[in-house]
Write a structure and sequence with these properties.
It is a single chain. The chain is α/β, with parallel strands linked by helices. Strands 16-11-6-7-8-17 form a six-stranded mixed beta sheet, sandwiched between helices. It has a five-stranded mixed beta sheet with strand order 3-2-4-1-5. It contains 19 helices and 22 strands. β2, α5 and β3 form a beta-alpha-beta unit. Helix content is 31%, strand content 22%.
């Protein structure tokens, strides 16, 4: 107990990293008398061999599902909740409706709202997955479930398990699962909205930590490495997120922890609240995504937050028009403050605040109570033996702390980038609806700085020594956050609108960018000009890197249709007969008669 109290008191930064959930801190606080019982409880944090997958057939609330309804289904035959379970449901319910295949859930959902299809198959967690987009903020009210099928199946992510020792430099990815349900067993598909990547070097006791914005635009491994928002990778499971991040940052992610946000509510309440200095007043939905009488209102200032308030603080990232009209000016006047970055910071604040409360744990019964709460909502591929091995590391830390003021070092990292509206063309040959969505594009310089810092901390590359250092007592000391405020080089190249331009411009543009164009000449009409581009097969704002060898087909005016006026009829040559008829003279008077006289 003395060991953990000392660590928490003096070195809570390390606790954020190594004890980011109570599963680590609790391992330190428990005496050897209870070790066997604790060992069995910690086993519950391990990934399950089987999990429950669920698919829903949904339609719009105003629609009536009939045998004539067109149904959308994902084309990927390996997608359990989007294809495999739907096929089983079709068989069970003897559904004979027409099926329309899609390669992208966003495109399919948009097709549902535009009437191209009447229903669609999707994960049971679809409301949480989609409703962060403004156009789908009321998805729960706008849709209804027609059929549902759940099935316990082999966990598709078990192959990620690592046997790396925590005595070597390692990486951990923390994934927050946003769900209306308790537990993790029913959340195979989830949003990658909360992603924190941590590296820790046990030899130097140094760590790096940063949050990855949900809209970060990067290649997604399970989508053929085509670019998309990292949050969308969660629809295909944690394996897709982990592989995508590993490829993007050029490092191996050794371990991951998945935490259900609903567990935060229960845990904070078990800790009797957490102390947080809230920067601005805000309002948010409750843990079950409910407004109305369930709305969570939080004022600015230092205060004790209960479970619902703590979760709302960790979730809040923007102010919508609905919040403005419903919550009022008091809770929405600082709308410009909130974004993905502040949400990431807030989540770290909540974790830190919870860790500070652990020092008040006085008995094993409290530990057991909290363990039972957390075990349902935390899942990790770190073995129980590895978790308990942290105790030995803690003893080494205690020795160092006797002679050093700061034993642990934590370096914050930051991904600097720019906003972009990009056509969601995950699969370039998709004939679905056009969607232009917000994405966050990372600057090359910032990404390189973050990658370098992580690799140095993992001992993958040698650390560059600082040879020059200047300091002025008059200058304010600010925290150095690697990657923040640097960069201007964007690798994003978007296809412009070519409609209305001359074909020679398009040909020149294609040569300079390396894209392929096919020209389909057609006959134009009055007001158009020869060489004018009338349409393009690939929409504007499409990422050129998505095209590959796929051509942009242009419809171009090749000639102008001309209308020749009909000539006036030539006059016929005059003749004696037609001359009389043409002049139409008055008839000659008949001669008078004598009536027989």
């Amino acid at each position: 107990a003395n060991l953990i109290n000392l660590i928490i008191k003096k070195h809570h930064k390390f606790m954020i990293l190594m004890l980011f959930t109570i599963l680590f801190s609790l391992a330190f606080t428990i005496s050897s008398y209870y070790i066997n019982e604790v060992y069995s409880k910690l086993d519950n944090f391990g990934e399950k061999d089987k999990i429950t997958y669920t698919t829903n057939l949904i339609t719009l609330s105003k629609n009536k599902f009939t045998e004539k309804s067109k149904i959308g289904i994902i084309q990927n035959k390996k997608d359990i909740e989007g294809y495999i379970l739907p096929q089983e449901l079709i068989k069970n319910k003897k559904i004979k409706n027409e099926l329309i295949t899609y390669n992208d859930y966003y495109v399919m959902l948009n097709a549902l709202f535009t009437g191209e299809i009447d229903a669609m198959f999707v994960s049971a967690n679809y409301i949480t997955i989609f409703q962060n987009e403004d156009e789908y903020s009321k998805l729960a009210d706008d849709t209804k479930i027609v059929y549902e099928l759940s099935k316990e199946m082999k966990n598709q992510d078990l192959e990620l398990k690592s046997d790396k020792s925590l005595t070597e430099p390692f990486t951990i990815l923390i994934m927050g699962v946003d769900s209306e349900k308790d537990g993790l067993n029913a959340n195979a598909a989830f949003n990658g909205d909360t992603l924190m990547l941590i590296t820790f070097n046990p030899n130097t006791l140094n760590a790096t930590i940063f949050s990855i914005p949900r809209d970060t635009y990067m290649p997604i491994s399970c989508m053929g490495n085509k670019k998309n928002k990292i949050t969308n990778a969660g629809w295909r499971g944690e394996k897709c997120i982990i592989n995508s991040l590993s490829n993007y940052f050029g490092i191996k992610i050794d371990y991951h922890v998945k935490i259900n946000f609903n567990g935060v509510v229960q845990l904070v309440n078990k800790l009797v609240g957490v102390e947080v200095d809230v920067p601005y007043a805000f309002c948010e939905q409750n843990s079950k995504r409910q407004w109305g009488k369930h709305t969570v209102f939080v004022k600015a200032g230092k205060q004790t937050l209960n479970g619902e308030q703590a979760l709302a603080f960790a979730r809040h990232r923007k102010v919508t028009s609905y919040m403005v009209s419903y919550c009022g000016k008091t809770y929405t006047q600082n709308a410009g403050y909130w974004n993905d970055f502040t949400r990431g910071q807030n989540q770290q604040i909540i974790i830190n605040a919870m860790i500070k409360k652990f020092k008040n744990i006085k008995s094993y019964s409290e530990v057991e109570n909290i363990l039972n709460t957390v075990s349902k909502n935390v899942e990790t591929d770190i073995s129980t033996d590895n978790i308990l091995s942290l105790y030995n590391m803690g003893k080494d830390v205690l020795k160092r702390s006797a002679s050093q003021d700061e034993v642990f070092g934590m370096q914050k990292l930051y991904l600097q980038g720019h906003d972009a509206m990009i056509y969601d063309y995950s699969y370039i040959n998709n004939s679905g609806s056009k969607l232009i969505l917000y994405d966050y594009v990372i600057y090359k310089e910032s990404l390189d700085a973050v990658k370098k810092a992580m690799k140095e901390n993992l001992d993958l590359i040698s650390m560059t020594p600082v040879k020059k250092f200047s300091y002025s007592i008059t200058e304010k000391v600010t925290e150095n956050i690697i990657g923040k405020g640097i960069g201007s080089t964007s690798t994003l190249r978007l296809l412009p609108s070519l409609v209305g331009r001359n074909v020679t411009y398009a040909q020149s543009y294609a040569n300079s960018t390396g894209i392929n164009i096919d020209i389909n000449y057609v006959e134009g009409t009055k007001g158009q000009f020869v060489g004018q581009i009338l349409s393009q097969s690939v929409p504007a704002k499409t990422d050129l890197d998505m095209l590959g060898s796929y051509p942009v087909v242009l419809k171009v005016v090749g000639s102008i249709k001309t209308t020749t006026p009909e000539p006036e009829p030539e006059p016929e040559p005059e003749t004696e007969s037609n001359s009389n008829s043409n002049t139409n003279p008055s008839p000659e008077p008949e001669p008078e008669t004598s009536n027989g006289e």
